[in-house]
Amino acid sequence: MEAFSISVAVCCVAVLLDALVGEPRRWHPLVGFGHVVAWFEARFNRQPQQACRSLISGGLAAVLVMAPMVAVAVVLQTLLNGWAALLVHAIVVWLAIALRGLAEHGKAVSDALLQGNGEQAREAVGRIVSRDAESLSDSGVAAAAAESMLENGADAVFASLFWFLVAGLPGVVLHRMVNTLDAMWGYRNERYLYFGRFAARLDDLMNWLPARLTALTYALVGNTRVAMKCWFSQAKTWDSPNAGPVMAAGAGALAVSLGGPAPYASGIKQRPQLGCGPEATAHTVDGAIALVQRGVGLWLIVLVVFALGFWAGGAG
């Protein structure tokens, strides 16, 4: 149980580092990894229309791009101990979670909306979603930002903490790389439909349990009754097996309506409604940020209580 207590301490230190420092403005490892991913895609994805060959090349590219970093994480996990292990692990988890960065992106949208600056709000939301921001109404901007806070809270914060607790340094490194691959290759278009399928399915698999733990967390720290009702009745209507529970529970926890039609460069995508209540506003974005933050606080409290319980039991 000592290993669990150390892992809990790492999570607490990482969240504290994130709150104090935020994510690096330059030389972020995930940005560098993104450049490597783009290089591999350009060289391996040469015949996207050929299903079988594209599936194989996409899977091979994903394995080749991730294997070295996972190997390094395994070596560090094996060799490091004591304060060096605590420090290195905390830095890696800090780089993975980006809780403060998520809130800053969301606040840029909500602040602009509260100031009545729709153009600035659309510019800000365009940095965090792939929708045609110029076509969004103020309510659409708020909904897009709130959905991004809820979904990225699950993918970048809670899932990273989960995989570190379950599998240590290799777990959190593998998860963040898979999530990045899915973000870059997981599109259902002509170029990535087959090439990105391996990464997309692996991301679905790794996020299945964390997504449902996140949905439960949103329900517990928000409007619990409505969140649970929306989760069980609406999640299955969403096209993503993991985003559905997260966003349905999150919308219910906030008691607002999200989802619905969304404009993209390719046209309007008709999506089911999630949650219930009024349309999203700037306060919805702030509420979604607070939901993620309260959820992280709940996780840390529960983890610390368990760690103290194990420690007390061992001491007794």
Automatic annotation (TrEMBL):
Belongs to the CobD/CbiB family. The chain crosses the membrane at residues 55-76, 83-103, 156-174, 296-314. GO terms for molecular function: ABC-type vitamin B12 transporter activity; threonine-phosphate decarboxylase activity. The lineage of its organism: Bacteria, Pseudomonadati, Pseudomonadota, Gammaproteobacteria, Pseudomonadales. It comes from the Bacteria. This is Cobalamin biosynthesis protein CobD. Its main location: membrane. It comes from Marinobacter litoralis. Keywords: Cell membrane, Cobalamin biosynthesis, Membrane, Transmembrane, Transmembrane helix.
